[in-house]
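User: structure tokens for this one?
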Amino acid sequence: MPDILHLEKYKENNRIEAKKSKGGLPKSVWETYSSFANTQGGVILLGVEELPDKSLSAVGIDNADEIIKNFWDIVNNANKVSVNILSDKNVKTETVDGKAVIVITVPRAVRSDRPVYINGNPMNGTYRRNGEGDYKCSSEEVRAMLRDASVQSQDMLVLENMGLDVFDFDSVHRYRQRMVSHRPGHVWEELDDKDFLYKLGALGRGSNGELRPTAAGLLMFGFDYEIVKEYPNYFLDYQEKFDESKRWTDRIASGTGEWNGNIYDFYFKVYNKLTQNIKIPFELDKGSRVEDTDIHKALREAIANCLINADYYGRQGIVIVQSSLEINISNPGGFRVELEAAKAGGVSDPRNATLMKFFNLIGISERAGSGIQNIYSVWKKQGFDEPLLCEETEPERTIMKLFTEKVGDKKSAIKIGDKKSAINEEKKQQIIDYLMKNGKAKTSEIADLLGLQSSRTRDYLNALVDEGKIIADGENKNRVYRLK
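Assistant:
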């Protein structure tokens, strides 16, 4: 929440919306309520105007109690707003420079309440936040939220019009061998393939009682030309970009006819590529080299997390790109829990729970919601820059960036001829957002924000100073940075 007593430090952004509200409760407040609830939450300030320089200033409200009563009457009217996700603590009046300002804090709605829409029609009344404004969601975005709102996991769907011929049984047999190695003596070990797939959840009973592939089974073991019949936008893409003069130096993609194109084989193809290229630390245990380090485990978790939480009906498919400085992993579909909750661990709400079960049975992925937390912990332990986890809209995507440059180690940047290429744009934006909110900060404060050492943080600050976006005041230990 912004410091309401220092509005001059803030500007409208994707989490703050200011409205003068001189004519009473503005109609546009409901679009913003919907957009905040369907994105990452935010704060609506009534009685505040945006000045020409984009800063905020209190103008006050004369009839705050009346406006608040009107707000509660409407937010509880199902014909106007699909669901009220607020409590009394979310709406209050504050005094700023002797003027009354209404502060409405809108949380991110839980997935079972999304889409939060207005005027009784989700297809025409659902909004999201993008940059500094509210935009009306497309029918595609609304349908994605409705799918996520379902209690049933997306991948449990039984595909009535498909038979066992959609499966690549070589993939099935590789999976079974891996499961035997990980769980020797398992009760399913002696089952034939058909019974095994049914017990696993890759087959389910259709309306006529016959066994048919489930969506999870199709994705895990199917041929890609069969998968696209159910998921027209299905696409898996791994790219290596180690030479800037080339579009890519290596690529693995579905739909080429060179391999089956399912997510089981894609997982291991990509994992093998990543572990070949990233520098894995040499570790010994009782004189023998450790072949399965924490970084191996974190990479497995990152790839599996992407595949398990993808919305395979969404656009642009799974895309994993490895360069000299980072691994960029992205999938269609937003996060189903708060991003900060995902980072903290302990909360698990997979979009494809059956796929999670498949991976878990062969020792991949966590069920306790600690996978992302473990990735952050391992990366910090190894001295890498902190991973970046974010969401995008239009289309909705989740992105995780794993930076493979050691904190304070600029050798990898120097090798490709440009030290500035090691500077990450998202971290620069974090600094700008922090200074916008807090006015000024020391290097140590920014270092804590980014999870970097002070020497590495100064690289980012110097880059922003060179770009003319921030300025430095003071010398040495007294130096602070603020927006220009």
